[in-house]
């Protein structure tokens, strides 16, 4: 790989693909963030179901996490994308249309990441809740805190403190999982690298550039997560 040609191809000059790759990176961040937010909502509900005393809800949450964690991420993407397309195609005649309907790639990616990260978040948040000292919860109850106030001031903050490192790993997994969404035609980073490599016949240049961008996003995410962890750990470490 010629260094000069590499920077010309992936740079921001008249023939460079830099803006296209950065646009793909923005789509990658957007779909990963949307999927992660919905995944945390699913994980919160799943963890609540697992720690509750309701056996049917706990069984449903167990089945969900077992099935999803046992399936490849790419297979889940295919099921959601092609399944959604099949449903839309079936519904089209009801609205006076016909033919094959494509399920939106961004929506399919958001749902796929939400489903997979939700299964991981369920176990992470369940473990974080179990790590909370029962004495702290009992002390809050003894002070007269109602269930909602107790959850908001005691249970939720302490659960997140214990779960935060693992939740950071879930986010990094979601960020990297987004590269699989290129199979749906979504114009994320990997898809743009594929298009660029096919147009210029310089696959190594584009995939190397994509690797650098993924590494930069993961590195910045790791720094942000570590900063939040230090902030959450204030008061736990004795000062010398």
UniProtKB/TrEMBL annotation:
<keyword id="KW-0472">Membrane</keyword>
<keyword id="KW-0812">Transmembrane</keyword>
<keyword id="KW-1133">Transmembrane helix</keyword>
<dbReference type="InterPro" id="IPR051613">
    <property type="entry name" value="ABC_transp_permease_HisMQ"/>
</dbReference>
<protein>
    <submittedName>
        <fullName>ABC transporter permease subunit</fullName>
    </submittedName>
</protein>
<dbReference type="Pfam" id="PF00528">
    <property type="entry name" value="BPD_transp_1"/>
</dbReference>
<comment type="similarity">
    <text>Belongs to the binding-protein-dependent transport system permease family. HisMQ subfamily.</text>
</comment>
<dbReference type="InterPro" id="IPR035906">
    <property type="entry name" value="MetI-like_sf"/>
</dbReference>
<feature type="transmembrane region" description="Helical">
    <location>
        <begin position="70"/>
        <end position="91"/>
    </location>
</feature>
<keyword id="KW-1003">Cell membrane</keyword>
<feature type="transmembrane region" description="Helical">
    <location>
        <begin position="20"/>
        <end position="49"/>
    </location>
</feature>
<dbReference type="InterPro" id="IPR010065">
    <property type="entry name" value="AA_ABC_transptr_permease_3TM"/>
</dbReference>
<keyword id="KW-0997">Cell inner membrane</keyword>
<dbReference type="InterPro" id="IPR000515">
    <property type="entry name" value="MetI-like"/>
</dbReference>
<feature type="domain" description="ABC transmembrane type-1">
    <location>
        <begin position="25"/>
        <end position="225"/>
    </location>
</feature>
<feature type="transmembrane region" description="Helical">
    <location>
        <begin position="206"/>
        <end position="225"/>
    </location>
</feature>
<keyword id="KW-0813">Transport</keyword>
């Amino acid at each position: 790989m010629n260094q000069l040609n590499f920077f010309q191809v992936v740079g921001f000059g008249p023939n460079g693909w830099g803006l296209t790759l950065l646009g793909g990176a923005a789509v990658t961040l957007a779909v990963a963030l949307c999927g992660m937010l919905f995944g945390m909502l699913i994980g919160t509900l799943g963890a609540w179901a697992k720690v509750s005393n309701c056996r049917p809800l706990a069984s449903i949450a167990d089945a969900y996490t077992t099935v999803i964690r046992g399936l490849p991420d790419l297979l889940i993407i295919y099921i959601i994308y092609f399944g959604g397309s099949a449903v839309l195609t079936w519904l089209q005649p009801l609205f006076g249309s016909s033919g094959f309907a494509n399920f939106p790639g961004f929506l399919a990616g958001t749902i796929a990441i939400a489903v997979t990260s939700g299964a991981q978040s369920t176990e992470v948040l369940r473990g974080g809740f179990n790590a909370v000292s029962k004495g702290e919860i009992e002390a809050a109850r003894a002070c007269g805190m109602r269930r909602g106030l107790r959850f908001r001031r005691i249970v939720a903050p302490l659960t997140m403190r214990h779960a935060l490192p693992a939740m950071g790993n879930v986010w990094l997994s979601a960020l990297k999982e987004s590269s699989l969404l290129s199979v749906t035609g979504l114009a994320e980073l990997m898809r743009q690298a594929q298009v660029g490599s096919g147009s210029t016949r310089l696959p190594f240049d584009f995939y190397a550039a994509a690797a650098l961008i993924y590494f930069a996003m993961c590195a910045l995410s790791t720094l942000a997560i570590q900063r939040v962890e230090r902030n959450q750990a204030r008061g736990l470490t004795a000062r010398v």
